[in-house]
């Protein structure tokens, strides 16, 4: 079973929705125009629409031929990023400083494409919940939807997600059972010393030198403190201190992120950061205050649903184009919160071998979602509903 022919017939419309969304990117919890567009389309196709979960979330309730009590959820993220777009094509961002650089415009358009087909054909029994989620980037809109009662209001027995993947050829799909994307934590270390004239450092306590030692020491959390079999990343991404040439500042601030798959490792990494930062600061006569936050948990695909997702993917693109044992990735994804609440599976859909039409990675100012793959993604959603919620006859 290849792509769904009926969906291919309105590929041009899916592309038009996608480019319209691309031209009007909206960021976390401000996806009002996007939500209006989604809700308008769903209503136009006779799908029951619920709005307001996580402020701008939209859930479409699509009934099959009979209600047999079976229910699954399909989730698309709708938000854009704070990036100034570098592209010059006609559908480039009209909102300065905001951009769909992660392909969530494509994710939204593909789920709309599937919704239109499923509303037209209703070739399934049970209920499909079409979950359009705000604020995937940084702000955890998926967590907010779950906290605000997503699965109490829409009791899906399983929930599915997907993400386009630059670097994976068009027509290929990757799936992984078990931990597939890492947990993401953030940390902030404020090093307090004592400011002084730069010509007389002996009269102060230099937080720049202390913070520099902390940056170096944090590298040992991975190289000397972690079992070589475990997967841990510690990255210091910000180092702020001082305002001028001839003053030793009183304070330095470090910020960064850690990635792990096991909750126990996240706890140990936090303890290591606190001990190293505190100990090094103290040894130098300063102080370090550490804030550590757990942002997104690891994304873990359940076994039954992953096998189903891989089988359906194989029906759409051919089993030989499905990598059913893909490597895990160190990126993180707030669909993990939905997978903590319900079993399910999150797959990767090839966006093009060269990293998309422009050879770009996600979050790059020249990135664009590849419209060629929209029919594949929408067909996957449609076949997933028809397979997970089969008709009785
Ligand atoms: Ni994304």
The named CATH superfamily of the largest domain:
Zn peptidases
Mean pLDDT score = 95
Name the beta content range.
Answer: 15-25%
- Inertia-based shape: elongated
Number of domains: 2
CATH top level class name of the largest domain: Alpha Beta
Q: How much helix is in the residues? A: 25-40%
CATH-assigned fold name of the largest domain: Aminopeptidase
The CATH architecture assignment of the largest domain turns out to be 3-Layer(aba) Sandwich
End-to-end span in angstroms?
A: 20 Å
Structure characterization notes:
By secondary structure, the protein is of the alpha/beta class. The chain has two domains: 5-179 and 298-388, 3-Layer(aba) Sandwich (Aminopeptidase), CATH 3.40.630; 183-296, Alpha-Beta Plaits, CATH 3.30.70. It is 34% helix and 25% strand. It contains eleven helices and 16 strands. The chain has helices spanning 5-9, 11-23, 32-44, 104-121, 141-147, 150-153, 207-223, 263-283, 303-317, 335-341, 374-388; strands spanning 48-51, 58-63, 71-77, 127-133, 158-166, 173-174, 178-181, 183-192, 196-197, 232-241, 247-248, 251-260, 287-296, 299-301, 322-323, 344-352. Strand 1 (48-51) and strand 2 (58-63) form a beta hairpin.
């Amino acid at each position: 079973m290849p792509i769904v022919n009926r969906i291919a017939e309105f590929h041009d419309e899916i592309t038009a929705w996608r480019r319209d969304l691309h031209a009007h990117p909206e960021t976390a919890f401000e996806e009002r125009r996007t939500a209006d567009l989604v809700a308008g389309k769903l209503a136009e196709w006779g799908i029951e629409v619920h709005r307001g979960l996580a402020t701008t979330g939209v859930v479409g309730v699509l009934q099959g031929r009979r209600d047999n009590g079976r229910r699954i959820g399909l989730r698309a993220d709708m938000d854009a990023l704070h990036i100034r777009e570098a592209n010059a094509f006609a559908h480039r961002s009209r909102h300065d400083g905001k951009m769909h650089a992660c392909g969530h415009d494509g994710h939204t358009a593909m789920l709309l494409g599937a919704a239109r087909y499923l509303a037209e054909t209703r070739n399934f029994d049970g209920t499909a919940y079409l979950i359009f989620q705000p604020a995937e980037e940084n702000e955890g809109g998926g967590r907010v939807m779950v906290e605000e009662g997503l699965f109490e209001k829409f009791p899906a027995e399983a929930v599915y997600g997907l993400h386009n993947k630059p670097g994976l050829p068009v027509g290929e799909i990757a799936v992984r059972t078990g931990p597939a994307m890492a947990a993401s934590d953030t940390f902030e270390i404020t090093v307090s010393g004592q400011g002084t004239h730069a010509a007389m450092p002996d009269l102060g306590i230099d937080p720049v030198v202390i913070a520099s030692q902390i940056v170096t020491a944090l590298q040992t959390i991975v190289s000397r403190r972690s079992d070589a079999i475990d997967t841990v990343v510690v990255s210091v991404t910000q180092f702020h201190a001082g305002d001028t040439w001839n003053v030793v500042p009183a304070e330095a601030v470090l910020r960064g992120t850690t990635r792990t798959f096991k909750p126990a490792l996240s706890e140990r990494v936090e303890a290591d950061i606190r001990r190293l930062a505190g100990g090094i600061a103290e040894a130098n006569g300063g102080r370090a205050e550490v804030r550590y936050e757990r942002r997104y948990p690891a994304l873990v695909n359940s076994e039954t649903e992953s096998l189903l997702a891989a089988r359906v993917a194989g029906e759409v693109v051919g089993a030989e184009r499905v990598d059913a044992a893909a490597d895990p990735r160190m990126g993180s994804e707030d669909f993990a919160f939905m997978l903590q609440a319900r079993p399910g599976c999150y797959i990767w859909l090839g966006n093009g071998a060269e990293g998309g039409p422009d050879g770009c990675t996600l979050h790059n100012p020249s990135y664009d979602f590849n419209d060629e793959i929209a029919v594949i993604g929408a067909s996957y959603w449609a076949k997933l509903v028809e397979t997970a919620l089969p008709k009785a006859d």
